[in-house]
Amino acid sequence: MKSKLRWSLLAAPLALAACSNISDAPQSASAVPAEKPRTVDKNPYPSTYKAYPGVATAIRNVTIFDGEGGRIENGIVFFANGKVSGVGGADTAIPEGTTIIDGSGKFVTPGIIDIHSHLGDYPTPSVEAHSDGNEATSPTTPEVWAEHSVWPQDPGFSRALANGGVTALQVLPGSANLMGGRSVVLKNVYARTIQGMKFPDAPYGMKMACGENPKRVYGSKGRMPSTRMGNLAVNRQTWIKAQDYKKRRDSGKEYTRDLGMETLAGVLDGDISIQNHCYRADEMALVLDMAKEFGYKVSTFHHAVESYKIADLLRDNGVCSAVWADWWGFKMEAYDAIPENAAILHNTGACVIIHSDDENQIQRLNQEAAKAQADGRRMGFNISDAEVIKWLTYNPAKALGISDKTGSLKAGKMADLVLWNGNPLSVYARPYKVWIDGALMFDASNPKIRPVSDFELGQPGEGDVK
Amino acid sequence: MRHFLYAAAAVAAFATPVAAETIAITGGRLVVGDGSAPIEGGTVVIRDGKIVAAGATVAIPSGARQINAAGKWVTPGVFAGFSRLGLAEVDAVNGTNDKSGGRSGFSAAIDVAPAIDPFRSPFAVNRSAGVTRAVVAPESADSIFAGQGAIADLGADSNPVTKARAFQFAEFGEEGAASAGGSRAGTHLHFRAMLREAQDYAAGRGTFDDDLLKAEDAKALLSVLRGDTRLLIHVEGANDMLRLMELKREFPAIKMVFVGVSEGWRVASELAKAGIPVIASALNDLPATFEMLGATQSNIGRMKDAGVQVAIGMINDRDSHQLRYTTQYAGNIVSLQYVPGATGLTWDEAFAAISSVPADIMGVGDRLGSLKAGRAADVVVWDGDPLELSSAATMVIIDGVEQPLGNRQNRLRDRYARPTEGDLPKAYDR
After folding, report:
1. For labelling alongside B427, which of A185, A288, A432, B309 has CA 20 to 30 A away?
2. Residue A276 and residue A273: Cα distance in Å, rounded?
3. What is residue A6's predicted lDDT score, i.e. its pLDDT?
């Protein structure tokens, strides 16, 4: 627990050698000889994830939150061949040969999705040798890919599954850099390789960061940026180069590949979403203008503790805010955080996502959402339980570009779902069973259906309830 | 000067409590905090800042201000078992962060009491969440001994310290080893050598070797050696705890309390036998370090079952700002009762672990931490189960004084409840 805030606060100065100055920052170290445009493989580390076998299962007599704001009392949800095949009331017909689970007193939700995690790139144990989330050697490193850092044996994946009901997550680079690199979306299923965890066909994201972290990390090295205006300047210079690169690439002529520029051009193409760490309202507004200036779109502001101040602007721009319920005061740009952030956003009609950025709170995103809901209720904003569940399921799926596949209980979607032993917005509720693509991956009543990473094998507490 | 005046006026506007009254709170679900079951329709009577009586049939003094708590819960205030409350306004802004005085050249002598600032916003924020008392500890820097901590109250007044120099705080395990030269061997050597130096100092020996201790440090450690001051020790791993229990046999008068204790369940019977109470981090369940390989949320329940006295604390876990998580953490420990194979606490035990038990462990259970007669009247009325996420404190009383529940976060909330600007900029909206 001791370095809890290391990504959002990033207090530890990084003693890595600076290897390029800002004038050539976007140049990656990995430029390779010229190549024909059409030969570029956009997916050179493809997902090898395969759904595990499941049995056709129906849960009945259960309260269903469908992830899109719907609630069904005494309902039935059933799934087969890895897909949701039916969701409805008590009279919904259950096909023959379906295993039936009585869900009396229990609740079903779509699998929880954490849009902001560092599981795998800052895994536990949190030792220096595992610190793989910030390539803090240049303020812009769009050429790095988080998936090349993620350790698939992070014990944190199992806790997120068993205690948090998390079935998918976006692992991001850290926030030391203005442009931190590509994110990766994972299925929360252990595999021997990171390719084995990658969410099939999920779009890439690119991490950007506003504010204190980049200017502190590079300013302390006597480099640009050392101010917020420096942050914007370096970003804009880099986008200008990316526009130029894209033009060359699209010209059909030979050009030299550049990994960083490929990512940025992918953003300008609309193929890669921007996932932007940003705390202050005024900075988010500047980023929105920068996005217009260069012709890209921000998917989500992460942390976004001051989103409530510009909820209307965020609504009008169709940008989500991925927020904590109530973190505050750990750094200057988190000083104006309030617990009603999510509720004010929701009430204004803006998109809300509850995120963790934390290997502990990823285990109770449902509880964080419940606190944000309660703080809203006390200011007169009554947000239903079913709407609040959307903050943890459909909204993050949409912001990640995977809402056609997961994030809600609709026929044909992946059977990623959690059966809770009570209302997941209660402190007393825990996941009872979790299915991913229809395969039972966690079962509270069966110690055999509880993953144990290689790291924990043969260690004290192996296979413990945790 | 001007902005100081305005700041003072702003604080006074919502932070000046009235004096202690005679109050009777009736009709609520009354939780005494000692682990006993709630009393339906119970009454608690407060006079002169103290609890007069609490129970099912309590006479209401004439002239008492009566508060009807029907449909509500009435409990002792939350006693945060471990914190850095009041020692920082913004953690990463150095000028506001007084957690560690380790570069002062002093160690055990450091006393956090004057650094606890009740005007810092974590006081008001956590007070409004029903936290009324807190154990406040310094952070260590260059010595295993971090200095002397205090017990604070969260009242909206200018006297935050309930008990100064209530304990000495020390780091063992990885953090202790780091400040003792890089090895746990160094930690143990430092521990012994510093205590022996303190004895030398007391004996007035000319050979007093102040390499490790200044005279002020020696004085502070003498109080620990004699058992007059508790020694709270941050320790997570099973082996570190076992070795500390050996040190306890070497220095039997020292009143040790373990803090953090992620692997406590592995040595629970030894802890119980040694009579060492613990202030445990409730939800650690990851091998964050190699001394926490066995971490599990069932830790507290297992230790309790083994006979260890266990309170909930939040060491190094947002411990300057988020003491309001204490009730949520306790609720999570209750939830483990419904998880097959896990070990939690009953609701009554869990509430005791955030009220009477930390007070007992700190040696002030006769004055604080429960609604028993004679204790300080720290009483909270809640609109529902205080451990549930949907509940909030609707009234907070500290030392018999009803507290203001406003804070800076509420002001921002009210200003931006409708974010779009109206006839004037938001800066005029207050």
Report:
1. A288
2. 9
3. 47
Render pLDDT for A391-409 as a digit per residue (tens, 0 to 9). Answer: 999 999 999 999 999 999 9
Question: E strands within A389-456?
Answer: 417-420, 431-436, 439-443
Percentage of chain B exceeding pLDDT 70:
94
| DSSP secondary structure of B146-203 | EEEEEEEE--SSS--EEEEEEEEEEE-HHHHHHHTTSSHHHHHHHHHHHHHHHHHHHT
pTM for the whole structure:
0.94
pLDDT of residue A12: 40
Q: What digits encode the pLDDT tens for the residues B7-65?
A: 444 444 444 455 779 999 999 999 999 999 999 999 999 999 999 999 999 999 999 99
The end-to-end CA distance of chain B, in Å, is: 22
List the strands of the sheet with A205-209, edge to edge: A179-182, A205-209, A273-278, A298-303, A320-323, A351-354
List, as ranges, residues 393-432 from A with C-beta within 8 Å of B: 421-422, 425-430
At residue B95, the pLDDT reads 96
Average pLDDT of the segment spanning A364-385? 98
Across chain B, mean pLDDT equals: 94
Residue A72 pLDDT class (50, 70, 90 cuts): very high
pLDDT of residue A197: 98
Residue ranges in chain B modelled with pLDDT below 70: 1-18, 205-210
Tokens 């740009």 map to which residue?
A: A333
User: Could you give the 3-state DSSP secondary structure of residue A390?
Assistant: helix
- From the list B155, B150, B76, B79, the residue with the least C-alpha distance to B123 is B155
CB contact under 8 A, B409 and A464: no
Q: What part of A 134-163 touches B (C-beta under 8 Å)?
A: 155-156, 159, 163
Asked whether the beta carbons of B151 and B162 are under 8 A apart, the reply is yes
Distance CA B130, CA B109 (A): 32
Could you tell me how far CA B62 lies from the centroid of its own chain? 36
Find the length of chain B: 430
Q: Please tell me the class of the B78-368 domain.
A: alpha beta
Place of tokens 């040798």: A129
What distance, in Å, lies between the first and last C-alpha atoms of chain A? Answer: 15
Pair type for strands A57-65 and A71-80: antiparallel
- Residues in chain B closer than 8 A to A309 (CB atoms): 416, 419, 426
Q: List Cα–Cα distances, B108 to B51, B143, B190, B358, in angstroms.
A: 35, 8, 12, 23
Chain A residues close to B283, C-beta within 8 Å: 360, 363
Assigned token pair, A102: 């009585």
Distance (Å, whole) CA B396 – CA B382: 9
10 Å CB burial of residue B78 (0-12, 13-18, 19+) is: buried
**What length does chain A have?**
466
> Which of B281, B286, B336, B407 to mutate against chain A (most A CBs within 10 Å)?
B286
Nearest by CB to residue A340, choosing from B175, B285, B413, is B413
> Which CATH architecture describes the domain A112-405?
Alpha-Beta Barrel (3.20)
| Helix, strand, or coil (residue A344) | helix
Q: For B274-322, write each residue's pLDDT tens digit.
A: 999 999 999 999 999 999 999 999 999 999 999 999 999 999 999 999 9
Q: What percentage of chain A reaches a pLDDT higher than 90?
A: 91
Question: B40 is written with which tokens?
Answer: 């339906």
3 state SS of A84: strand
Quick one: DSSP state of residue B293?
T
Strands in A166-171's sheet, in edge-to-edge order, are A112-117, A166-171, A184-187
